[in-house]
């Protein structure tokens, strides 16, 4: 496994003209951040050694290398979800490859269902903690000591430093921003009303089908993490309406300009 990670990282490194400072994983409907990137190279996942290939709609499956406001970044347009049938090591393979390629900061974005009753559809939520409800953990198996310890501390997974900076940026830009707990679950079903209620009782502000596995792996490897989520539908009792992948994509796309501004400015501030 370590050999595969190294081969993928070595291939990507051979494509860099500088050391990227940040790795970015773009979620559903949020691929438009790519428009902020001055693209130097765009590589199909199928051309990266050992990379899984993305299957879900709205995820095109490319690694973009370039600059955001002068900062050299590597961005994944399309991620791998557990519900697609990938093993956890495949879902999290890119995060390890990024680390092995010398990247120490990871930005992740996603779409999620809102559980906090004060959130409206279209709310942007900075992730300040997560709950892993995947029923498994990507670190199960022999520990890869090259990356981190057997029993990783999880007391501050999402960087307070970056969260504070994001709120400063939002204030200056007049963008309203919330922060809360993201609960990750397998999908592919959206939640029943009772499941939304249960996840709220468990302490989550939003629920989605991604992010937690990659973040666990990145945190294990000592990366600084910033996560941001767009609330695309409501799981609040009395506000639940039928939800579809198309609706999720539409709402995410509408909120994207503000999210993009925050990410771009945050990258610039690093
Ligand atoms: N539940 C789970 N995942 C999601 C949702 C949701 O309501 N919305 C977008 N991704």
Structure description:
With 270 residues, the chain is an alpha/beta fold. It contains seven helices and nine strands. It has helices spanning 2-15, 88-91, 93-100, 160-173, 193-201, 212-220, 245-268; strands at residues 22-26, 37-44, 62-68, 71-77, 105-114, 124-133, 178-185, 206-208, 224-234. Strands 5-8-7-6-9 form a five-stranded mixed barrel, surrounded by four helices. Helix 5 (193-201) links the parallel strand 7 and strand 8 (206-208). Helix 1 crosses helix 3. It starts with a helix and ends with a helix. The mean pLDDT is 94. Bound molecules: hypoxanthine (HPA).
How is the topology of this model organized?
Elements: H1 2-15, E1 22-26, E2 37-44, E3 62-68, E4 71-77, H2 88-91, H3 93-100, E5 105-114, E6 124-133, H4 160-173, E7 178-185, H5 193-201, E8 206-208, H6 212-220, E9 224-234, H7 245-268
Parallel strand pairs: 1-4, 1-5, 5-9, 6-7, 7-8
Antiparallel strand pairs: 2-3, 3-4, 5-8, 6-9
Helix pairs in contact: 1-3, 3-6, 4-7
The structure holds hypoxanthine.
End-to-end distance: 31 Å
- Shape from CA axes? globular
Strand content: 25-35%
Largest sheet: 5 strands, mixed, barrel
Radius of gyration, in Å, reads 17 Å
Report low-confidence residues grouped into runs of 5 or more.
none
Order of helices and strands: HEEEEHHEEHEHEHEH
Helix content, binned percent: 25-40%
Number of strands: 9
List the ions, cofactors and other small molecules found in this model: hypoxanthine
| Order of the strands making up the biggest sheet | 5-8-7-6-9
Overall SS class: alpha/beta
- Average pLDDT score: 94
Q: How many separate helices?
A: 7
Give the oligomeric state of the chains in this entry, treating copies of one chain as homo and distinct chains as hetero: single chain
């Amino acid at each position: 496994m370590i050999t595969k990670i190294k081969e993928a990282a070595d291939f990507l490194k051979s494509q860099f003209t500088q050391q990227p400072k940040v790795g970015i994983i773009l979620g559903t409907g949020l691929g438009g951040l790519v428009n902020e990137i001055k693209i130097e190279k765009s590589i199909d996942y199928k051309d990266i050694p050992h990379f899984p290939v993305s299957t879900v709609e709205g995820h095109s499956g490319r690694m973009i290398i370039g600059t955001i406001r002068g900062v050299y970044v590597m961005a994944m347009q399309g991620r791998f979800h557990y519900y697609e049938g990938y093993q956890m090591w495949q879902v999290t393979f890119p995060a390890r490859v990024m680390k092995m390629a010398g990247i120490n900061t990871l930005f992740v974005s996603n779409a999620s269902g809102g559980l906090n009753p004060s959130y409206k559809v279209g709310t942007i939520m900075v992730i300040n903690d997560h709950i892993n409800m995947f029923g498994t953990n990507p670190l199960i198996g022999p520990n890869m000591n090259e990356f981190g310890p057997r029993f990783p501390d999880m007391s501050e997974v999402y960087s307070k430093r970056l969260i504070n900076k994001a709120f400063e940026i939002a204030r200056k830009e007049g963008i309203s921003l919330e922060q809360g707990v993201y609960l990750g679950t397998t999908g592919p079903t959206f939640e029943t009303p009772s499941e939304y209620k249960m996840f709220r009782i468990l302490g989550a502000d939003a629920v989605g089908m991604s992010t937690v596995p990659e973040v666990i792996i990145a945190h294990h490897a000592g990366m600084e993490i910033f996560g941001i989520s767009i609330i695309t539908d409501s799981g609040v009792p009395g506000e639940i309406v039928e939800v579809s992948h198309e609706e999720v994509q539409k709402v995410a796309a509408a909120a994207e300009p503000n999210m993009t501004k925050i990410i771009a400015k945050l990258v610039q501030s690093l």
